[in-house]
Design goal:
The longest helix is centred in the N-terminal third of the chain and has 27 residues. Strands 3, 4, 5, 6, 9, 10, 11 and 12 form an 8-stranded mixed sheet that branches. Strands 1-2 form a two-stranded antiparallel sheet. A two-stranded parallel sheet has the order 7-8. Strand 3, helix 5 and strand 4 form a beta-alpha-beta unit. The chain has about 300 residues and is of the alpha/beta class.
Length: about 300
């Protein structure tokens, strides 16, 4: 006998007979006629070359060989049920297993600490592997399978990717405490286009967004490799910069060297989205993950609508 001749349904029949101790009750349990069940049990015994049940007019008993077969049949049926459960998970039930989640460098250090606790509570069977990188590297990692999903800033080349916007994060101005921009009324982004504007290095999406928001030239100002270096440059009096809201300290600078200011209602910002490969069979689960992030949009940001998602 080979696997092609082994039916899960036949295993259900013999387990039912073993449980009920009666062919008639086993047939009722399996929703088949008693002759059909009896024939299939006989066929299985013949295929295995074993007698599983000792039959008499009074009772049905398992043979010694039958006891071992029934034990293993229960294991096989339980694993088959687990296979069906895994399939249900893949159709949109909570994600399980390992998920490689990346984030752009100007978001990850500030967003992950806010959501990790509720994320672990919501997805107890999900094992996260977190990383940070620039947008171009993240997109490449998504497309070649090294990354499963990523938190990025839009716009993004979406060919082959599913994109689900999460929230809009405003930008704030960070400037030296003695600078003229540290004081005044409503602040507009166009006021800060000038030689003192500090930028991140080329290849960082926040650099491009800052230039676009301020109408500044790409060669303006000095450059830094990270937001924390930009913050230090501002404290040293080298100039001013834009910071995403999540990177803005919750309390005033204790050194008194820097000031952060919000813009007016039409101030600059960026849209954060969750992206994944459109071909990923876990798409429904990843869409649910995006809904989770949207529901946990940080204070000071504006959650996007769930129907904003695109593929």
């Amino acid at each position: 006998m080979n696997l092609a001749g082994l039916s899960l349904r036949d295993l259900e029949y013999v387990v039912a007979v073993a449980d009920e101790g009666h062919f008639g009750r086993a047939a009722e349990r399996c929703n088949v006629s008693q002759p059909t069940l009896s024939v299939q049990v006989r066929k299985l015994e013949t295929a295995l070359g074993l007698t599983l049940f000792e039959r008499s007019n009074r009772r049905i008993l398992l043979t010694e060989a039958g006891q071992a077969i029934i034990r293993q049949a229960r294991v096989v049926l339980a694993e088959a049920q687990r296979l069906l459960a895994l399939a249900r998970e893949g159709r949109g039930s909570p994600l399980t297993g390992r998920l490689i989640l990346a984030a752009i460098q100007t978001l990850g250090p500030y967003f992950f600490p806010l959501v990790l606790r509720p994320l672990r509570e919501q997805y107890p069977l999900l094992t996260l592997s977190l990383s940070e990188s620039r947008t171009a590297d993240i997109v490449e990692g998504l497309r070649d399978g090294r990354i499963d999903a990523a938190l990025v800033s839009l716009p993004l080349p979406s060919n082959g990717l599913a994109v689900s916007p999460l929230f809009v994060e405003p930008f704030w101005l960070a400037c030296p405490a003695e600078h003229a921009l540290a004081r005044g009324g409503a602040l507009s982004a166009t006021e800060i286009a000038g030689p003192d504007l500090l930028l991140l290095d080329e290849g960082n999406c926040l650099r491009d967004q800052t230039i676009a928001a301020c109408g500044a030239g790409s060669s303006v100002g000095r450059h830094a490799t990270s937001l924390e270096t930009l913050r230090s440059m501002v404290a040293a009096g080298a100039g001013y910069t834009l910071l995403p809201a999540l990177a803005v300290p919750a309390s005033p600078d204790p050194s008194g060297l820097t000031v952060t200011r919000a813009f007016d209602v039409d101030g600059p910002g960026r849209t954060i989205a969750l992206v994944w490969r459109a071909s990923d069979p876990r798409a429904a689960g990843l869409a649910n993950l995006a809904a989770f992030f949207r529901a946990h949009a940080p204070p000071g940001t504006a959650a996007c609508r769930g129907d904003d998602a695109v593929a």
